[in-house]
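Notes from hallway chat w/ T.B., transcribed later so I don't forget. T.B. wanted the structure written out for a chain they're using in a teaching module, and asked if we could keep both sequence and structure tokens in one place. Agreed to drop them here.
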Amino acid sequence: MVILSRWQPVMAFLPVETVINARQDHYYQQLSQADSRSDCTEFILFLLEALRDALAQAIAVQPAAVSPHQKKMRVEMRGETQVEKRVKTPQAILAELAAEPTITLKQVAERIGKSTSTVERAVALLVKDGRLRFVGPRKSGHWEVLDPDASTI
């Protein structure tokens, strides 16, 4: 995984070791056969299957619902390979409030998959930093995004 993570850093976070640990007997059998036959083809196939299964597990645990306003940024690596990086909480909050200024912080939290207290803390920092403000009465007011493109908190 170290070699693969140099090619694709996201590979360092896959649960490959867990998958291989669950198949430990088969792992040692393939390793022994590769050694005795001086042919690592079957061992490599075993590792590729483990990698595939680890990817499937990682994909399966991703949040099912993503708000239409919660975008993913594309990050280029070495000019040709791309990985997706989740938008940070403050940016996700600003995107939601810019799209629908009258929603509650509880609704924002549900849409971005965070707890209400996490969203409230992030909003307090956004207000303190002058990137967000609440306009009008508490029950009928709305949020105003002042600086959606400022660097992250």
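Follow-up for T.B.: The mean pLDDT is 79. Might be a good example for the class.
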